[in-house]
Design goal:
The protein is of the alpha+beta class. The chain has a single domain, classed as Methylpurine-DNA glycosylase (MPG) (3-methyladenine DNA Glycosylase, Chain A, Roll). 12% of the residues lie in helices and 26% in strands. The protein is built from four helices and eight strands, in the order H-E-E-E-E-E-H-H-E-E-H-E. Strands 1, 2, 3, 4, 5, 6, 7 and 8 form an eight-stranded antiparallel sheet that branches. This is Putative 3-methyladenine DNA glycosylase.
Length: 210
């Protein structure tokens, strides 16, 4: 059992534990991947910012009600985003992957995002999805299954400091607007916004495998 499916962990705890994990998408036989550096937790029926607030259910959001580890792929303002359900079937909580640090298949990622380079390649939820080449076909699949998966066979990168803040772009949601449910690797240049000063080690205590 991984932390993703372990019922002892809250969604906020899982969002923090995702930091340093490797998100992988296999495209045309190539492995495109990046280390997760930023996440947001969404707490289901009580969370006014969640797509499942007040037990809302539709074909669009049903993957969030799936078993822990189910990919919920959704589109917003022409951007596609990757979320993962985090609790038992029927609960409706999940984590948004907001940013990754590229690791494998960087040339292929750049080809997927023409005229974008450097930190702009994957420093946002829509950007990373485009770079990885992920589409709506990943909706409802498991984090264990290819082509889109979390590679837990590789050791996580250890984070020097996990920072938190209110989630991005959540206005007019009462206390949930200011709830500190966004987590990120302090000092990492691929964090989407409000990342603070970039550290020389990019916020890691361990280095990616060669």
């Amino acid at each position: 059992m991984s932390f993703i499916t372990d019922p002892q962990f809250s969604t906020a705890e899982i969002a923090r534990q995702f930091l340093g994990c490797l998100l992988v998408h296999e495209q045309d036989g190539q492995r495109l991947s990046g280390w997760i550096v930023e996440t947001e937790a969404y707490l289901g029926e009580e969370d006014q910012a969640a797509h499942t607030y007040n037990k809302h259910y539709s074909d669009r959001v049903k993957a969030l009600y799936g078993p822990a580890g189910t990919f919920y792929i959704h589109q917003m303002m022409q951007h596609t985003m990757i979320n993962i359900s985090t609790q038992a079937e029927g609960v409706g909580e999940g984590v948004l992957i907001r940013a990754i640090q590229p690791y494998q298949g960087i040339d292929e990622m750049a080809a997927n995002r023409p005229n974008k380079s450097g930190y702009e390649l994957t420093n946002g939820p829509g950007k990373l999805v485009q770079a990885l080449g992920v589409g709506m076909e990943a909706y409802g699949t498991s984090y264990r299954d290819k082509p889109l998966f979390i590679d837990l066979k590789l050791p996580k990168l250890q984070v020097a400091e996990i920072k938190s803040s209110p989630r991005i772009g959540i206005p007019n949601k009462g206390k949930w607007t200011e709830a500190e449910l966004r987590y990120y690797v302090g000092g990492n240049p691929y964090v989407s916004r409000k990342r603070g000063k970039i550290r020389k080690d990019w916020g890691w205590l361990t280095s990616p495998p060669n």
